[in-house]
Amino acid sequence: MLNLLVRALAGALLLPASMLADAPAFAATVTPPPVEHFVERDAFLDIKISPDGKHLAANMPVERGTALFVLDTETLAKRGDFYAGRDIEVADFWWSSNERLLISPAQRFLGDEAPTYTGEIFAVNADGTQPTALVGYRADDGRRHTRIKARESERVWASPIDLLPGADRHALIQIEPWSSRTSNFASIERLETQTGRRTRVAMSPVTRAQFLTDAAGNLRFAQGLTSENDLELYHLSPGSESWELISSQARAGQQAFALGFSSDGAVAYLQVSRAEGPDAIERLDLATGERTEVYRHARRDPAGAIYSLDGNAVLGVFVRDPQVSMHFFEPEHPEAKLRQSLAAAFKGHDVFITSATEDGRKAILYVYSDRNPGEYFLFDRQTKHARHIGSRGRALVPEQMGETRLVQIQARDGLLLDALLTLPPGAEPRDLPLVVHPHGGPFDIQDQWGFDPRVQLLATRGLAVLQVNFRGSGGYGRTFVEAGYKQWGRSMQDDLTDATRWVIEQGIADARRICLFGASYGGYASLMGVAKEPDLYACAVGDVGVYDLESWARRVDFQKLRWGKNYLQDAVGSEGLREVSPVHLASHIKVPVFLAAGENDRRAPVQQTEMMEAALKRAGVPVQTLYFRGEGHGYYSTDNKLKFYGELLAFLDRHIGSGWQAPAVP
């Protein structure tokens, strides 16, 4: 995708020339990129460098699965691979040493298109030898997969906590038994990565926990959620066996979780919610217990920590505004300056370091933008050379994609909302057909600046796309999230309406050609939008949506769990749900509707779509449907994606079509 030639940038970094140039002027028009280019699997799902820098591990798609390939860093020649089976995917992987990798697999079970995370841990040598099922239900029977050696079978969820550098044959993992009705307390164990032998280190003090270790690999923090969905943070002092509760949402009314430690290990950094506005970062003195606020953005939560290359220290935090902006606690640290140099060099892109060598000389960079699906580079800190390794989107040309910009909208009650507006490539923001695209979730989820294949598919067809971070979305503080509680179809929906009217008032959208299209909660909001505002939209698309809140709350997959019941009561409520359920408002809808669903969906059961279809037909509303056998909450099969997006584009073209042709690259 990018020109592989490199040149110096201000004497600092060597980068591909095409990433340094301004976007070319548009010339004549050509046919938009085919749908296939937006739905095919990425050429690389992830790339990580070995601790000694001699090898790269790359997760790549193969027929009905993925395989892990180990490549020579210099020549990119294959040294080894791991392919566990036709319906098994490498969901994630980690270098546990220079010669051994740990793998988290996912399995495609009978009748399902999408693979399911199994909670197992596999291991394999870099040359592809000694593949072993270390933890999980498959570990007892080597005959099930002849390339995997047998171990003791357990039905558990297991995942790495710390790969324990310097202890090549060991890793720290957490393990929980399978259960569909209860949340369990994790066991933290030391795993021998060759034999699978394990030794218990500690038990979690809280359910649904995540853990944090210090530079020596010692367990220090546990943070998790109670059955009442209150966040608790515990600290374990060196040499102690007793967890100390240092923050309880139930007691203090605020959430706090640990990000990591300072370079000297004397301080921990916590992200803490506030009664109003965004989260803050606090500095916790581990000797005295004193907490001091050290950073807070005016409107946005910290989106994550910036770690040192060895992963042992928190150098700062980043905020999405809408691109990544960084704040460093130690601005003079050499690695802080490195991050700033990389951000300046890859102008117009976000840059993340996905892995680095043990000595910190080489690192894998992942670089993306609103128009670029993503590039991997091997960066050498000594030579300041960034070598292109591969692209995620094989055939998409950034210059043919639409620009995504941040807009701010004031809701009817004065609440300030952020939204992302993507314009067709080369188009003026005037009288455009518009798709309002509400995100799923809906709580604590946000639309972020970056490459979104759905959005770009629409933009390359001449459609502007509006993504609103309505109240209830994440990234703007706890009070903003909770402002959406029990507001399905009410103020959350009004935010979408107000944003739509704003785009019309600005002259950006043609008021006669606006359609709602969303998935999951976004599907609900799309149907609720045309029911509540029947004269505002020309059509609606509901994908894997929820349309009858009362019946959904009784059938959704997590309602069997105590925390799930509590979440539904807090976030959705139980009163007045019929009044805000589109299935009971079908007679209010005046425009054509397109519904799609997966027959194996456990989050939004297919019966929700069937009920909505029946209600629309009874009301005489034009409705077309697509049901996919074997698919769940979203579509995995490339053929099914092609079918869905082909039907979607045809539906939109009929009702708000633009007759647009994408600009060509000269």
Automatic annotation (TrEMBL):
<keyword id="KW-0378">Hydrolase</keyword>
<dbReference type="GO" id="GO:0006508">
    <property type="term" value="P:proteolysis"/>
</dbReference>
<dbReference type="Pfam" id="PF00326">
    <property type="entry name" value="Peptidase_S9"/>
</dbReference>
<dbReference type="InterPro" id="IPR001375">
    <property type="entry name" value="Peptidase_S9_cat"/>
</dbReference>
<keyword id="KW-0645">Protease</keyword>
<keyword id="KW-0732">Signal</keyword>
<feature type="signal peptide">
    <location>
        <begin position="1"/>
        <end position="27"/>
    </location>
</feature>
<keyword id="KW-0031">Aminopeptidase</keyword>
<feature type="domain" description="Peptidase S9 prolyl oligopeptidase catalytic">
    <location>
        <begin position="449"/>
        <end position="658"/>
    </location>
</feature>
<protein>
    <submittedName>
        <fullName>Dipeptidyl aminopeptidase/acylaminoacyl peptidase</fullName>
    </submittedName>
</protein>
<dbReference type="InterPro" id="IPR029058">
    <property type="entry name" value="AB_hydrolase_fold"/>
</dbReference>
<dbReference type="GO" id="GO:0004177">
    <property type="term" value="F:aminopeptidase activity"/>
</dbReference>
<dbReference type="GO" id="GO:0004252">
    <property type="term" value="F:serine-type endopeptidase activity"/>
</dbReference>
